[in-house]
UniProtKB/TrEMBL annotation:
Transmembrane segments: none annotated. InterPro entries: MJ1255-like. Pfam families: Glyco_trans_1_3. It comes from Teredinibacter turnerae (strain ATCC 39867 / T7901). Gene3D superfamilies: Glycogen Phosphorylase B (3.40.50.2000). NCBIfam families: MJ1255. This is Glycosyltransferase family 1 domain protein.
């Protein structure tokens, strides 16, 4: 089987999912070509495992100080280049096109009449999951940004919908957790605003990953440039995580039992809805703005929730290898089996409703 896999390159969560899936797709003997879009090629890092991957401009959202700027997004988008890339991308040689909210591959597959499978968090929003900030523009972006015929949506809870648990790719690190160490990854916020937010809490050590050229120590605040191995180590050895309300890092933190404080990117439906879901499920504290009072409450009074998710990447790779999208009922079986394997350590939101209702009519 030969697959074309398009990955949204804005942020690193989509890439983390692709890394996890790539490992198991290769193990099952499936040949995969990768396309990434959403940032310049030199802004990607640690990409060797994706082989001879291709990079397109694609589409990405303009943000400023933690807010999405829709008008500037359309101003700066190169729609002519996007249409040219869609028209010229040849997908005929592939048995399947997969997209993780990547528009060039999704639209090229639709144009060619080729089956396109969406795998990712955004595809959970096809169903009745918690939403906040819903408006006409947000709905249309979710619907048309990277449209697919079949999807495997991912979320922290099933909400009685035919969606899967998160894909979590964890490196097993045996070093002990430092109870005073906090990992900070607020990629959509201004650096000086984040430093000012953390400055008063001198009893804690904040490891802040961001757009820094090199390591710098500001006393209890440690500035670090992005590094996959370094980030994984600091995540494993920290007691908590302060981050924007993206999906993948929050999933990894929950899986490892880290306490979470999330700040959504305002104006962005997915992140606002993620914060809403976190609150409903009692999985994290949230703040709409960089708020020192909330940080203080979280540091001193909030404890981590621990939700252990199964190996979703391996199960999806096997489902793809068996051409599950061609077999009615196979998706429902996949959904139920994976939620049955979740261990939420007694969290009420999971223990009262551990698996979805029968999915025959919704899958």
């Amino acid at each position: 089987m030969k697959i074309l896999f398009g990955v949204q390159g804005t942020g690193n969560g989509h890439i983390s999912r692709a890394r996890a899936l790539n490992k198991y797709l290769k193990a099952d003997g499936i040949s995969v070509d990768y396309i990434f879009s959403g940032r310049e090629r030199d802004k990607y890092f640690d990409m060797e495992e994706f082989g001879d991957w291709r990079c397109y401009r694609g589409l990405t959202f303009v943000h400023d100080s933690g807010n999405v700027k829709i008008f500037r997004t359309f101003q700066e988008a190169s729609l002519r280049q996007l249409m040219r890339d869609i028209r010229t991308l040849d997908v005929e040689q592939y048995d399947l096109v997969i997209t993780d909210f990547e528009p060039v591959t999704a639209w090229a597959a639709r144009r060619a009449g080729k089956t396109c499978l969406g795998i990712g968090h955004q595809y959970a929003f096809k169903y009745d999951v918690p939403r906040r900030g819903d408006n006409f523009v947000g709905k249309k972006i979710m619907e048309y940004f990277a449209p697919v015929e079949e999807s495997l949506g991912l979320h922290w809870h099933h909400f009685n919908q035919p969606i899967l648990p998160p894909i979590v790719d964890i490196d097993h690190i045996s070093d002990p957790v430092d109870e005073k160490k906090i990992l900070v990854y607020l990629g959509f916020e201004e650096t000086h605003d984040v430093i000012q937010l953390l400055e008063p809490f001198k009893d804690f050590t904040f490891v802040y990953y961001g757009p820094f050229d090199q390591y710098e120590s500001l006393g209890h605040i440690k500035l670090k440039p992005l590094s996959r191995d370094g980030f994984k180590y600091d995540l494993a050895t920290s007691a908590g995580v302060i981050c924007n309300a993206g999906f993948e890092l929050s999933s990894e933190a929950l899986h490892m039992g880290k306490k979470l404080l999330v700040k959504p990117l305002l104006g962005q439906l997915e992140q606002l809805s993620n914060a809403e879901a976190m609150s409903r499920l009692n999985l994290a504290m949230t703040m709409d703005y960089l708020d020192g009072n909330i940080v203080s409450q979280w540091l001193h009074n909030f404890s981590g929730r621990h939700v252990v998710y199964p190996n979703v990447a391996k199960a999806i790779a096997q489902w793809i290898g068996n051409k599950g999208w061609e077999h009615p009922g196979s998706k429902a079986d996949l959904v139920e089996s994976l939620w049955q394997a979740v261990d939420a350590n007694g969290l009420e939101s999971f223990s009262t409703n551990p698996t979805p209702v029968p999915l025959a009519e919704t899958a």
